[in-house]
Write the structure tokens for this entry.
Amino acid sequence: MRTWKAIFAAALLAALVVPMSAAAQQAADSQPSAQPVAPDATPTAQPSQPVAAPTATPAQTEVSQPAAAPAPITMDQVVTLFVQREHALIKMLGTRTPIVETYLQDLTSDSQLGPVPSADHYFLGRMDMGENGDRKDYLKDESTSMRTRLMGGFQRLFKVQYQPLGFSWMVYADRTDFDRQHYGFTYVRREFLGDVRCLVFDVTPKKDAGKGRFLGRIWVEDQGFNIVRLNGTYAPAPRNAMFFHMDSWRLNLIPGYWVPSYIYSEEGDFSAGTKNKEAFKAQTRIWGYDLKKGGKDDELTQIRVDSVTDESASSGDASPLQAERVWQQQAEDNVVDRLTAGGLLAPAGEVDRILQTVVNNLEVTNNIDLPRPVRTRVLLTAPLETFSVGNTIVISRGLVDVLPDEASLAAVLAHELAHIVLGHNLGSKFAFNDRMLFNDASTYQNLGFKHIPEEEQSADKKAIELLKNSPYAQKLDSVGLFLKALQLRAPQLSALLTTHLGNPLAENGTVIRLSGLALQGPALDNAKLDQIAALPLGGRVKINPWDDKAEMVKTAPVAITSARDKMPFEVTPFFPRLARYGANTAPVAPTTAANATSGN
Ligand SMILES: [Zn+2]
């Protein structure tokens, strides 16, 4: 069984977790995400090629394929169609309450590295897509003034204050008044975004349309006439406020609809002579569209209480030790199910198989034989954290993203495996099902898996022991490099390093995890282009915003040409390769510029 697992895993790893090597990277320009196509004639003229008329009710059709012979239509009709489709999308999503995560880095200028993070902020909540656009925050310690609703903007009173809702506002161009009375639409050209041919329009608010109207460009796919990308800002701004610039992407995750998925925001100008040095960049991700709406009744029915299987071979009662193990498994299953139902944990899938392979490598070479197999799951959030409950190791999407190679992945997993091997089990109180009955927004107040410092130290010690017996023993230099890179940025990235369920990798700006490996390996050297100590966020794991499934990103490597290309732990713009629903077996890849450095 184990041998079979190991072989299977090795093949997977070869395919997916290729160790980073900038030297081996080749410049690849095979990402035609924004490949311009020859522009059409005049804006209002009929397109040179007829575009297909959309199917009547895309929601009910399988895949929104144009029926029979498509009738040629004018650009004027296209405007009518995409306005209709936008209103249909707003209506369809009106009952949804997806999770919205914004991770923001304030920027300062560094002479060698260019703009680098000087501080960071993290927002996580669930957004009501209905009319009020309300947002429930998972993180309770946020000041209430943060939630003052000022659409898309931040107040400029004494200091910059970011509005968490602001970053999610640009899921739509205009929630209430997206129509010809309020906007002028000018056809620009045709352009491919990924595999999808789009018609590009400039959108400008009409005179007297009011404050805070969308100003920018939209991309409309040419079969169903849904908006797939919005890029711009809002205007004019109210007094004492300004609006962010945003680039907002949608994915065709269900038939007939393109669902808001990623928003990149950036402000700042570091050119010589610029007075206003306020600068930031932020990634907003939306997922969990298909989660049950968080009503109290729903929450009760979401809880699975029947998941424990009696593993004892005999028909008699469980021995005390057996009873203890079944109890722990019950707690583990409760927590995993609850976090999945709340939209914080990805369902078991492809990424877990890779993580499990690495854990398996550690187990086999250390002759670890546990009564139950160790499972792994991906926490969907960005902050760098791991924790374990029972025999399940959980690692955050953000942490998988920034780890440079398999050895450093093994190192963070080894720490949690060490807790399991040493019997540091924290979660057994969650075997009582009443402890699972809470509102999603209070997940972080109800669940927690932080160990005492003594257990942390012994887990680190054991982890290093496990690593030294493993196939990763000769590759621990890269773990040391990663820890050094983390230490260099830790004082500025307190939000990214603030954990919500497990122990932090760093405390008060100092890296504490695996400190026994911190001096391992060469010195950190930004000028060495083949030294990749840590990756940007967003380059490894992608989440399907509809069903929360996690997958590995597959991108062609891009050569690093300067120290500024490394961008360790940084956010970058999104450039998903758009594809139509069901058109592609390889799912949509929300690649980001981050992939410029990710070597698979
Ligand atoms: Zn720990």
In short: The CA atoms of residues 17 and 406 lie 6 Å apart.
